[in-house]
Amino acid sequence: MPVHNQDIAAVFEEMADLLDIRGDNPFRIRAYRNAARTVLELGRELREMVEAKEDLTALPGIGDDLSRKIEEIVRTGTAAALQKLRAEMPAGLTEMLRIPNLGPKRVKSLHKELGVQSLEQLEKAARDGKIRDLAGFGEKTEQHILDALKARALTGKRFLRAAVTPYAGALLAWLEKIPGVQQVAPAGSFRRAKETVGDLDMLVVAEAGSPVMDRFVQYDEVKHVLAKGETKSSVLLQSDIQVDLRVVETRSFGAALNYFTGSKAHNIAIRRLGQQRGLKINEYGVFRDEKYIGGRTEQEVYAAVDLPWIPPELREDSGEIEAAREGKLPELVRADDLRGDLHMHTAASDGQNSIAEMALAARALGYEYIAITEHSKRLTVARGLDEKRLMEQSEEIDRLNSELKGFTVLKGVEVDILEDGKLDLPDDVLKRLDLVIASIHSKFNLPVQKQTERIMRAMDRPCFTMLAHPSGRLLLEREPYAVDIPRLIQHAKERGCFMELNAHPLRLDLNDLHCRMARESGVKVCINTDAHGVSDLDNARFGIGQARRGWLEKRDVLNTHALKQLKSLFARTMGK
DNA sequence: GACGCATACGTCACACTATGAAAATAGTG
Asked: Å from A295 (CA) to B8 (C1')?
């Protein structure tokens, strides 16, 4: 099995956890965690960098030792140093870290004093009442452990952003109605529009004496109260989504929102800038010598460190602070910049609605055009279209267009890329369309080189407008197939074709890093919903969130262009 | 374990709250 960056990061994370339990040098532990983050956010496969003999120590947080370890992991799939740590400490210990209120110190004590090394043994020890007598534990902690195991309330579980969105909306509306509540705002990774979120962070401004905290923990859907205090509480909903609530006063709203939105790395960077200026920045405001000098709005916080306001989607400490300092922040694409949707299915293949229904729904969203892009014949499970049915659909679209005023339905297809890189329909058929979307629905397991070259061959066909869902991943379900996305982006640049950002909440494919890479390469990205019914058209908002995380501006997004311009851009991809 | 300044060594990621144990641990962005 080829080693992916995720595997390398997992080795470093596990080593950090084990070193943490062992009580090792905290800076060494941090070095492993930093390296894991660098590896995850790299956007290129380290395996390929190793093969190309690139200097890994040029990467931030990777020195001689870790670069050697990366090479070792690429070669063997693991690191001897990890095996050694595992021999010292059973692997079940890192699992115990995922239980709320158990951190490295307590896990170490459980292991050392009671010999506990798995969740099963932990449960038995708690049932037998052995844990309460350990130093640093008590009856309550023992009970919490049992509760957590029973509720399987392990932290670290992630949810699709789209899955959390309705919960956020409902909770927000409910909180707003509590007496004394003046303002409610979602924060955290949800506000940063991350594709998956670990919990839902909510910020509330309330008058003194407001019952907001008491009410919050009594919210209908609360399954388990993890913590409740004056200013901070956490609960677990029936759906296992954790919600953290912070209450602040008005003058702290901006500072708290900034803090609570994160990312952690961004906060640290901002606070360091504050320190350099002799300021203390915390969630209550900006302070000079204990004197409050701002924090009502986020703008005040950024202004204190001589920066303009930075959009939440960019706050990852991945260059946004430098860009802000130089006045080079992108003007991020917005939902109302979209003029159409270029990837959708109808009842002719595996969709639910007619072409007319899709067109009317899109027009109601304010769009000027859509493209109908059914699957091709190879995809029999989706009733893919052959040449004949595709041409019949063309005629239907012509009839519809003659009736629609100020709205255009474009003729497209989502043609399968076959194993040899050919397309599933002949060129003379494709040529009669406005655009050709191509994608992979078979042979996901090819080696990276073969998969990449397969797609590049497809891109070189006379008719090829854009590559749909380029990595094939399904968030939280299926890993991307082994494919060299940077190379595909480069090839798209040379070929003059486009990359899709599939806005389906389960896909969001391209990911944010690759969006940014496409922008830097000058390859336009198309935000498509891949709708299989009218209600799916609304998913464009998730694509917008992802695009913004990828630093995309309006001009970087294909379907912000007017129809005329779009058609001329398509013509070059269709051999015209 | 990385990194910068120096070539061996000191420094490294901020700021704060809740909990439950009896001073510390865990957890939040």
From this structure: 44
